[in-house]
Amino acid sequence: MSLSPAVCTPFAVSPSELLNPVLTAQGFEAAPLFARDERWFARHDDWTFASAFQPLYALSGTQAMVGAEALVRVRDRAGSLLPPLMLFAAETSTRRTVYLDRLLRCLHVANFLPAAHRRDGLLFLNVNAQHLVNVSEHHGQFFAAVLDSLAIEPGQVCLEIVEDAVSDPERLLLAVQRYRQLGFAIALDDFGQGASNLERVWLLEPDYVKLDKALMQRALMHPDLRDKLGQLVDILHSYDAQVVAEGIESERQWQIARETGCDFAQGYYLGRPEERLPW
């Protein structure tokens, strides 16, 4: 079914009233955020976007849920689901890429707003690599202003960066430093995939390192690699980073994540992405 704007459900703080003016000022759709069934959606060109949230759980103590990663669900004009990667792959305009990244972050924080005001959990948000490349300065200024308008503290948001997606380490460092100065937490995503290396961890000093799911798959299939995974986790801890095991799809992987010293875990075994906040 194709989504279209509907009568907005009343909110104590209306994200549409606060965010649509700043998004409209970017020069694309007028009022791109709209509400339906107590959820927020966004539109851009022929696409409609919705948020989904996948929980993260602590691996020690009460093993409570500590936050969630926001993911985007994309539908075309006919209502068919599309792979999210198609969004930025189809964009060739620097200005449109920056706008799209901002629009999606605004959408996710609008849906996160009730939990944010209860101070429940940390919201993990992906930062598109092209956004880091295309915004030459003032990283985070737009988004910090968005959070301020919604009375959300930057410390309630962790920005996930794929560290090997940006070939210019100096530009990456500049962006991370600016985000951190504004109060955001920083995570390195998909660590262990591609050209991931510990030098970037030393350089960027992330608060969280999210291990790529391939590491957990290899540790499951090859028991002799589990000691090495534990050693890697120990090294990341020595850099004062907390470690998130991604792609946990079975009880045994969950046990391996605990045995190797990971701090948090995320994956289908613990919770699939849901349309509404899982807490």
Structural features:
279 residues, alpha/beta, TIM Barrel, 38% helix
3D architecture notes:
This protein has 279 residues and is α/β, with parallel strands linked by helices. The chain has one domain: TIM Barrel. Helices cover 38% and strands 23% of the residues. The protein contains ten helices and eleven strands. It has an eight-stranded mixed barrel, surrounded by four helices. Helix 8 crosses helix 10. 42% of the residues are buried. The N terminus is likely disordered.
How much of the sequence is in beta strands? Answer: 15-25%
What is CATH's topology name? TIM Barrel
Overall number of structural domains: 1
The stretches of 5 or more residues where confidence is low (pLDDT under 50) are 1-11
What would the principal axes of the Cα set say about the shape?
A: globular
Helix content: 25-40%
Task: Tell me the total number of β-strands.
Answer: 11
Q: If classified by CATH, what would the architecture be?
A: Alpha-Beta Barrel
Total DSSP helices: 10
Report the order of strands and helices: HEEEEEHHEHHEHEHEHHEHE
- Largest sheet descriptor: 8 strands, mixed, barrel
User: What's the arrangement of strands in the largest beta sheet?
Assistant: 3-4-6-7-8-9-10-11
Mean pLDDT: 88
Helix vs. strand class: alpha/beta
CATH class: Alpha Beta
CATH superfamily: EAL domain
- Cα radius of gyration in angstroms: 19 Å
Quote the distance from N terminus to C terminus: 27 Å
